[in-house]
């Protein structure tokens, strides 16, 4: 009884677990139940039950409600899909003037809007692309095809690669100094020499359109949310869901609305990249000291002046960190949106992975990562750069970078001109190195992969079999063996014990949505893969983080490694694992583990770092040993921060599990991938995406509530 | 003297959702405790006072006493919940947004505790900021700002960024910025509280020098009683939103109105605060020595001279008329004895 009084929480948890297991054992697996694989679900089966809601027929296998809830939300995807089609094809038809055919045409309003948006995006992308690579679409947009036939000189020639490379080096020098400039120059030269110029510039042009647009939208929405509580409240749930929504899932509805191609990819990228920009804008504006705002008011600023002359310049750094985030999301999307036909490195990467040409995939992946790291470093340098004062410099000093770039332009053009004389018959290497003429290392890598496979095949296979048979299959079976009612009870109980009624209600709602969707089993498989990944990642990340923290240099080194790894677009992680483990669940899980270990390690280190140095000194003066200090001081205090890391680890793991569908899994991600090629997939894709987002949000809610309480308890911010 | 520059009539500031209805129901009898039970926090409670032209009113109080809130009501950075505020006869609370901006652009300047400089602008750009906001072109505003840079003694550093300056220098920029539009009314919100003691003293002297030259109407907020005594024409002491006493420094030291005020005055070295005028006998006796002291001298400065006299010393005014007398015993009583009497 005394023990009970001393640890009431502990006993409540034990009680919850006892009830959970009792339910698991009490409810037997129904005899008709089996995990349905692949396409079998779409076959009409006389054993299926049906119900009709809102005129949509839903078919499902009925079980005892304690075992699996009926998919009462099964009509939702169909309904979303039908609504989308109705909006696109039948809602508010109007007369629109068509430029090409010179006549009025009847079109639904939404279709017209999306088509206009599409045309605008296409124009922007083509404009940038043609500046970098040359072409005539932009000129045609202002004139006509006939005109360009008559005036072939007007075609944009595109910039020689020498100019782009030198230009980026100058920009890098201006932002981050000599080291960054050398890196920029080398990266660009590498891309050119290895024949990846064209796809790289396509990807770059995509990002140069998507990132600024996302920035503008994110900034304006952030400002709106800052100004009005109502806007913030309206945006908040969307931001929350978008944070955990897998990027795949957004592809499908966008496909219906905007079709296939770069323009659709830009719009999707904006949908994904705007939320973090909004959050960081809001964060930055909130962090402006109130006295600075008052000083602005007392200087007689009106609202407009206050925003643009006081608030935004003061919040500059946070806003620029937002730009950095936007760029990173854009890269990630540049690869994923290859699924809906965006051109560039992502497309090549996807193609190569599909053909299992690991060498080619590696080359494309390397180029993407190089550009990503470069832009990441440049935008961070920009954020951290202090404003300079130019008033006392002369014209040359003030404009030396522009002048230098002008010089480079001339030299580049002259070089390209000489190149066209020198390489008279073949390709002008000083202008652009074509794809098949660059140095290719693909064969080398492919041979390497073959060699690894030949040499280590036995071991890899043995490991693979062991992992799947001994660990993964049993774990999956365990997850699927849980009766729905027991799972829901466990989650809601945990919510109640951690955060009281409010938390319990929130997680209950989120769980019920998944349980009532037709994909509860899939969600369990997703969760099982994510759980496995998270556990292993946490063990690795925690150990590595703690070990690295013992030394100042290794700490710094590890944080840098984390930075660089985080810059890689998530898809790139699939290349090496496919190289080593082929197409199995193991590959996906290893990619998940590698990807999710980054936040686990980073937050462990940052958590340990956040322990105040005063406490260190106090502990040392009390005569603690290294281990005592670690276990009695540092871990307890760093634990809340490390739990936030766990939160991130879960989000990262979920993302990678979903992306792993590309290799072949049997979870929600696979269905999202399937929805991509399904004409009626929009509703399914979106609902699946929401399911994944909700899995993330359940954990997010539980962990965050716990951390907030714990921090309050420890008295740290 | 004509109309007061700042005039407050029972100003209330109450934070909370139904502050206004509660204030109405309270009928001018606001009790902080009752309000707090109903979820409202009383910031300023029935503040009435006037500040006349060229006067420096120092509002002194500990943190949470409502002194900053009072200042923000008068600069209308927050809207007062009740009462009336007049700035040069204009009803402040009835101004529309445009009139308010006009008032701030031309009549008011404010200095902040944390300096509140714009990090992306240089010293001279920061000072020129209010001028540019007003719509003055770049060249004129920079020229004017350069005058201000000289006024606060930052010449040669005009192209520095705030991050490159020390705290004292940053506050000089803050002061220069608040003076750039040549305001009539000058608000200072704990301007020297964030500075080191030595720098603080230097800045106080500098501030007195500036005020001698500029003769602004000033409201100065501080939590430092010594600072208040040193600078003020009159001091308002605040506690829990209520002005406990509003008087000249000498009167506050000699006649504290409440127990709370008396606690502050206890430790004050009187000889540094009181003038001869405050302690002299206004009657003159026959037995007067040769030494004459001005009535406006601080006791500390003349105490030694007076104490070496055997006879009573004559006190004179500006035009050399004898207006009273003071004897050494009186000085000793004031400096050492007075405190005991009060206990």
Describe this structure in words.
The complex is a heterodimer of chains A (717) and B (343). Chain A contains 29 helices and 4 strands. Chain A is mainly alpha-helical and 717 residues long. In chain A, helix 20 crosses helix 22. Chain A is globular, with a radius of gyration of 28 Å. The model of chain A has no long low-confidence stretch (mean pLDDT 85). Chain B is of the alpha/beta class and 343 residues long. Chain B folds into 2 domains: 214 residues, 3-Layer(aba) Sandwich (Rossmann fold), CATH 3.40.50.300; 70 residues, CBS domain Like (Alpha-Beta Complex). Chain B is built from 15 helices and 13 strands. Chain B has a 6-stranded mixed sheet with strand order 6-7-8-3-9-10, sandwiched between helices. In chain B, strands 2-1-4-5 form a 4-stranded antiparallel sheet. Chain B has a 3-stranded mixed sheet with strand order 11-12-13. In chain B, helix 5 packs across helix 6, helix 5 runs parallel beside helix 7 and helix 6 packs across helix 7. The longest helix of chain B has 18 residues. Chain B starts with 5 loop residues before the first strand and ends with a helix. At the A-B interface, helix 13 and helix 14 of A face helix 4, strand 6, helix 5 and helix 7 of B.
For this structure, the quaternary state is heterodimer
Main sheet: strand order of chain B? 6-7-8-3-9-10
Biggest pleated sheet of chain A: 2 strands, antiparallel
> Which superfamily, in CATH terms, is the homologous superfamily of the domain at 164-387 and 424-440 in chain A?
MetI-like
> Helices and strands of chain A: which structural class?
mainly alpha
- Report the order of strands and helices of chain B: EHHEEHEEHEHHHEHEHEEHHHHEHEEH
**Topology-level CATH name of the largest domain in chain B:** Rossmann fold
Task: Give the terminus-to-terminus CA distance of chain B.
Answer: 39 Å
Provide the gyration radius of chain A in Å: 28 Å
Using only C-alpha atoms, the radius of gyration of chain B works out to 23 Å
């Amino acid at each position: 009884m005394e023990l009970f009084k001393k640890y009431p929480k502990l006993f409540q948890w034990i009680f919850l677990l006892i009830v959970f297991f009792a339910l698991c054992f009490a409810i037997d697996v129904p005899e008709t139940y089996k995990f349905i694989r692949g396409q079998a679900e779409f076959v009409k089966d006389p054993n299926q039950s049906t119900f009709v809601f809102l005129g949509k027929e839903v078919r499902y296998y009925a079980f005892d409600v304690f075992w699996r809830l009926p998919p009462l939300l099964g009509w939702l995807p169909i309904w979303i899909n039908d609504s989308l089609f109705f909006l696109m094809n039948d809602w508010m038809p109007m007369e629109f003037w068509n430029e090409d055919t010179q006549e009025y045409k009847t079109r639904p309003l939404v279709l017209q809007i999306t088509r206009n948006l599409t045309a605008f995006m296409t124009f922007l992308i083509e404009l940038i692309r043609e500046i970098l690579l040359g072409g005539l679409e932009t000129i045609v947009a202002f004139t006509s095809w006939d005109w360009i036939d008559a005036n072939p000189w007007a075609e944009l020639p595109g910039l020689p690669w020498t100019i782009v490379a030198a230009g980026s080096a100058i920009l890098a020098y201006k932002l981050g100094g000599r080291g960054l400039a050398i890196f920029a120059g080398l990266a660009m030269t590498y891309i050119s020499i290895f024949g990846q110029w064209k796809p790289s510039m396509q990807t770059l042009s995509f990002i140069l359109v998507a990132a600024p647009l996302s920035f503008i939208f994110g900034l304006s929405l952030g400002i709106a949310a800052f100004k009005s509580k109502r806007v913030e409240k309206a945006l908040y749930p969307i931001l929350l869901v978008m944070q955990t929504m897998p990027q795949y899932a957004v592809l499908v509805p966008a496909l219906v609305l905007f079709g296939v191609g770069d323009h659709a990819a830009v719009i999707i990228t904006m949908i994904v990249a705007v939320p973090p920009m909004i959050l960081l804008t809001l964060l930055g504006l909130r962090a402006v000291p109130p006295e600075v705002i008052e000083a602005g008011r007392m200087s007689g600023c009106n609202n407009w002046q206050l925003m643009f002359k006081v608030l935004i310049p003061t919040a500059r750094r946070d806003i620029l960190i937002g730009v950095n985030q936007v760029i990173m999301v854009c890269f990630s999307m540049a690869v994923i949106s290859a699924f809906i036909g965006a051109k560039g490195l992502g497309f090549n990467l996807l193609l190569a992975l599909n053909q299992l040409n690991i060498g080619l995939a590696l080359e494309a992946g390397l180029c993407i990562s190089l550009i990503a790291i470069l832009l990441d470093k440049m935008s961070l340098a920009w954020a951290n750069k202090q404003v300079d004062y130019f008033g006392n410099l002369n014209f040359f000093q003030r404009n030396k970078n522009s002048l230098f770039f002008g010089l480079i332009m001339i030299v580049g053009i002259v070089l390209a001109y000489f190149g066209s004389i020198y390489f008279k018959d073949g390709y002008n290497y000083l202008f652009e190195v074509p794809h098949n003429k660059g140095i290719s290392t693909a064969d080398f890598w492919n041979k390497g992969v073959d060699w690894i496979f030949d040499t280590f095949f036995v071991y890899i296979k043995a490991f693979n079999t062991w992992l799947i048979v001994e660990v993964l299959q049993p774990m999956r079976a365990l997850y699927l063996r849980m009766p729905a009612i027991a799972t829901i009870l466990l989650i809601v109980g945990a919510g109640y014990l951690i955060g009281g009624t409010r938390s319990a209600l929130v997680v209950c709602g989120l769980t019920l949505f998944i349980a009532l969707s037709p994909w509860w089993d899939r969600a369990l498989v997703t969760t099982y893969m994510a759980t496995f990944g998270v556990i292993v990642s946490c063990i690795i990340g925690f150990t590595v983080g703690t070990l690295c923290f013992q030394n100042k240099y290794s700490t710094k080194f590890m944080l840098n490694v984390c930075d660089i790894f985080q810059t890689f677009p998530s898809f790139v992680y699939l290349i090496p694992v496919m190289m080593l483990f082929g197409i199995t669940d193991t590959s996906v899980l290893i990619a998940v583990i590698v990807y999710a270990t980054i936040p686990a390690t980073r937050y462990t280190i940052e958590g340990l770092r956040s322990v105040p140095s005063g406490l260190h000194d106090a502990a040392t003066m009390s005569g603690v040993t290294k281990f005592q200090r670690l276990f009695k001081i540092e871990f307890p205090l760093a634990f809340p921060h490390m739990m936030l890391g766990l939160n991130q680890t879960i989000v990262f793991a979920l993302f990678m599990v979903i992306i792993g569908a590309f290799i072949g899994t049997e979870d929600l991600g696979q269905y999202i991938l399937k929805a991509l090629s399904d004409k009626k997939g929009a509703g399914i894709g979106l609902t699946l995406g929401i399911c994944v987002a909700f899995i993330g949000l359940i954990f997010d809610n539980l962990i965050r509530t716990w951390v907030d309480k714990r921090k309050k308890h420890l008295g740290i911010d | 003297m004509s109309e007061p520059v700042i005039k407050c009539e029972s100003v209330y500031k109450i934070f909370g959702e139904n502050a206004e209805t509660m204030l109405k129901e309270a009928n001018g009898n606001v009790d902080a405790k009752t309000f707090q039970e109903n979820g409202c926090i009383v910031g300023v409670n029935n503040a009435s006072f006037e500040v006349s032209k060229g006067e420096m009113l120092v509002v002194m109080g500990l943190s949470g006493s409502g002194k900053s809130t009072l200042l923000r009501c008068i600069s209308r950075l927050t809207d007062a919940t009740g009462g009336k505020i007049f700035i040069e006869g204009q009803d402040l609370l009835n101004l529309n947004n445009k009139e308010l901006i006009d008032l701030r652009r031309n009549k008011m300047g404010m200095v902040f505790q944390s300096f509140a400089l714009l990090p992306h602008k240089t010293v001279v750009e920061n000072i020129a900021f209010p001028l540019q906001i007003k719509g003055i072109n770049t060249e004129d505003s920079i020229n004017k700002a350069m005058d201000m840079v000289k006024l606060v003694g930052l010449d040669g550093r005009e192209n520095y960024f705030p991050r490159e300056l020390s705290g004292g220098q940053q506050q000089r920029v803050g002061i220069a910025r608040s003076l750039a539009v040549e305001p009539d009314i000058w608000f200072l919100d704990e301007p020297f509280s964030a500075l080191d003691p030595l720098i603080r003293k230097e800045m106080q002297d500098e501030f007195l020098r500036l005020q001698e030259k500029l003769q602004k109407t000033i409201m100065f907020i501080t939590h430092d009683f010594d600072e208040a005594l040193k600078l003020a024409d009159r001091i308002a002491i605040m506690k829990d939103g209520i002005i406990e006493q509003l008087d000249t420094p000498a009167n506050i030291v000699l006649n504290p109105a409440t127990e709370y005020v008396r606690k502050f005055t206890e430790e004050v070295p009187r000889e540094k605060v009181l003038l001869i005028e405050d302690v002299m006998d206004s009657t003159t006796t026959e037995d007067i020595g040769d030494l004459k002291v001005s009535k406006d001298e601080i006791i500390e400065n003349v105490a030694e001279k007076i104490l070496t006299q055997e006879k009573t010393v004559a006190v004179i005014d500006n035009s050399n008329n004898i207006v009273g007398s003071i004897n050494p015993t009186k000085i000793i009583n004031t400096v050492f004895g007075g405190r005991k009497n009060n206990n």
